[in-house]
Every structure is written in C-alpha cells, then in structure tokens.
Design brief:
Length: 119
C-alpha cells in the first residue's frame, strides 16, 4: 500500500523559510516522478514543482522558481520542498504526489500539510 506522508508545515513570517518533507513508502519509487502541489482557500490546486526520482531532475512553476527547491534522499525515501523568501501568497495546503513511469497522472497523494505565511 503506497503512502505519502507530508510534514514540516507551519506558520512563518513573510520572508522566512520552511522545508517540507514527503516520506514515501509501500513500493519502490525508482523511475517515479514526485510532484509538489498546493491549494489555497477558495482556489484550485496548483502545481508547484516536480523531481524525477532516479535522475533528480527538477521542474518548477514560474511562481516559485528561484525561491523553492525540490530534492530527494533515496536512502530515506523522502522528497523535500525547501521554500525560501515566502510571501503571503504562498499560504496553502501543500501536497506531495507520485506519478508512475508510464502514467500521465499522479496516482498517489499525501494528506497535505498546512503552510501559513503571515505579513
């Protein structure tokens, strides 16, 4: 049974930083793409960025490029989202998700972790 568990959310002042973690379990994620998404109140879910588990290659949404960094630790089966220079518009529930090698959709999702940025 695949499980993705996010942690690390919380309250931070504008300009601050947070690091989110996503612990993946239940299968081998070799070849998978791990994505981060977020959803603010009253808004649709938004893609934040992704990382390919094997190569570590990354891709980011324009809204976070240069401020957020995704990385992974293969030994710990964990993906990270380092968020710097946070602003109030980054307030949202953040989710990690996993997409299989041949899949175009993210089949597995975590429960989310709340990030609140105060002004």
């Amino acid at each position: 049974q695949v499980q993705l568990v996010e942690s690390g959310g919380g309250l931070v002042q504008a300009g601050g930083s947070l690091r989110l973690s996503c612990l993946a379990s239940g299968r081998t994620f070799s070849g998978y793409t791990m994505g981060w998404f977020r959803q603010a109140p009253g808004k649709e879910r938004e893609f934040v960025g992704r990382i390919t588990w094997n190569s570590g290659s990354t891709y980011y949404a324009n809204s976070v490029k240069g401020r957020f960094t995704i990385s992974r630790d293969n030994a710990k089966n964990t993906v990270y989202l380092q968020m710097n220079s946070l602003n109030v518009e980054d307030t949202a529930v953040y989710y990690c998700a996993a997409r299989g090698i041949t899949s175009s959709e993210y089949a597995y999702w975590g429960q989310g972790t709340q990030v609140t940025v105060s002004s």
